[in-house]
Amino acid sequence: KGQAAIVTGASRGIGKEIAVKLAQQGMKLTLIGRSEEIHQSAEDLKKMGFADVLPIQADISDESEVKDAVEKTLQKYKQLDLLVNNAGVGFFKQVDETTLDEWKKVFEVNVQGVFLGSKAVLPHMKERKSGTIITISSDVARYTIPNGSAYTATKYAVQGFSGSLAQEVREYGIRVGTINPGMVDTFFAESKQGLEEKRDWLKVEDIANAVVYMASAPKHMMIDEIVLHPFVQNYPI
Ligand code: NJP
Question: Which residues line ligand 1 (CB under 6 A)?
Fold first, then answer.
């Protein structure tokens, strides 16, 4: 009770649903997103009856904005139990069609953003000797796909980052894990939610439920990673 979480990329898609499921678990929330939609997410949650929701318009690749969001969260809730590094961007092009700017941008958000978010919450979590950091990675970090080298590289990077961090913070009782979904019906990569061709894809609820499961694991249990994909998505296992 009284637990608080930060969810990045909660303006829409998976992050917004993670916020709903965590609120249903009784958690107080800070929601982060770049666009004004983040305020709408907070309003929607308040309409559902969840009072403790703090929307913050911030870019996760900007160190001072991330630090500021964590400080505001601690001022409001006095504790922080969970960080969900969910915000991410993606595009799918062949290597020789990918510009250096596109490459840098996707790394800035997907990798630098995860680093900055985690770094900002660690002093508090270390001091309390408790906390959980969950990063929404991707199945592309487990089964590579063509035409997605930049995006795939970012998700391999966060796997490495999370694995190393998990070992580093064990002694502080802090748990670090990743959730690696296959195709999810969201707005990802300039797409729209609810398109007919995405009918059989994972739903945002599927990922949000995985977050709740990982975050609420009993103290003696550590879930490193959850890989989940639509039944229709086939892998060369
Ligand atoms: O994407 P989308 P998803 N700073 O586009 C925010 C991974 N994943 O929910 O900033 C702060 O609907 C953006 O808000 P705004 C994926 O890699 C997905 O599908 O206001 N926030 C919005 O709320 C990603 O890590 C699939 O525009 C930033 C949210 O991020 C995670 O799932 C498959 C930001 C994106 O919502 C959520 O993606 C897979 C920034 N710099 C992994 N940049 C899939 N959908 O199929 C973006 O394997 N946001």
Answer: 8-15, 32-35, 37-38, 59-61, 86-90, 109, 113, 136, 138-139, 181-184, 186-188
Tens digits of residue pLDDT in 50-64: 999 999 999 999 999
Active site residue 172: no
- Nearest CA to 111 out of 58, 160, 179, 170 is that of 160
Q: In the predicted model, is pLDDT for residue 237 greater than 60?
A: no
Please tell me whether the interface predicted TM-score (ipTM) of this complex is above 0.90. Answer: yes
Q: CATH assignment of 4-228, given 3.30.420.40, 1.10.1740.10, 3.40.50.450, 3.40.50.720?
A: 3.40.50.720
Strand order of the β-sheet with 4-8 is: 53-57, 28-33, 4-8, 82-85, 131-136, 174-181, 225-228
